[in-house]
Amino acid sequence: xxxxxxxxxxxxxxxxxxxxxxxxQWELELVHQLHERLRPVKLLDGKDDNMVWKFxxxxxxxxxxxxxxxxxxxxxxxxTSYSFTSSVWRGVVPPRIELFGWFVLIxxxxxxxxxxxxxxxxxSDNLCVLCKKEIESVEHLFLLCELTWQx
Length: 151
Description:
By secondary structure, this protein is mainly alpha-helical. It folds into 3 domains: 2-38, no CATH class; 63-106, no CATH class; 112-150, no CATH class. 44% of the residues lie in helices and 5% in strands. The protein has 8 helices and 2 strands; from the N terminus they run ββαααααααα. It has helices at 25-38, 63-74, 77-80, 83-88, 95-106, 112-117, 138-144, 146-150; strands at 6-9, 12-15. Strand 1 and strand 2 form a beta hairpin. The N and C termini lie far apart (44 Å).
């Protein structure tokens, strides 16, 4: 809850995030960005916290609402201009598959190559889990791996 991540210092709201582990260097930059985004947020003292997903009329989170937001606001013309993507984004597959397909298209799937770049795994451990011949990137895993093609 938001109330667990802050304290009031007079009239000023001070964010006080507690992490379960020491953060990686790249995560510290994300925390800094989070603090910058939270700076203009003004909260009311004495109000109870409640969770609301602003992209749904009832305030409830769903994968479908995320997909709708991505379709309406974030998807670039470059991605949706490909003929195969137009059918993916029209509800032909379940929303979670649409979301996963979008992550594949923009390279946000947690492949070994991405995890090693983020410092989560060692660079030496980034070979494809299937063929063990190439670096496990989005392109390799979903397009170029010989074992993927057999599946």
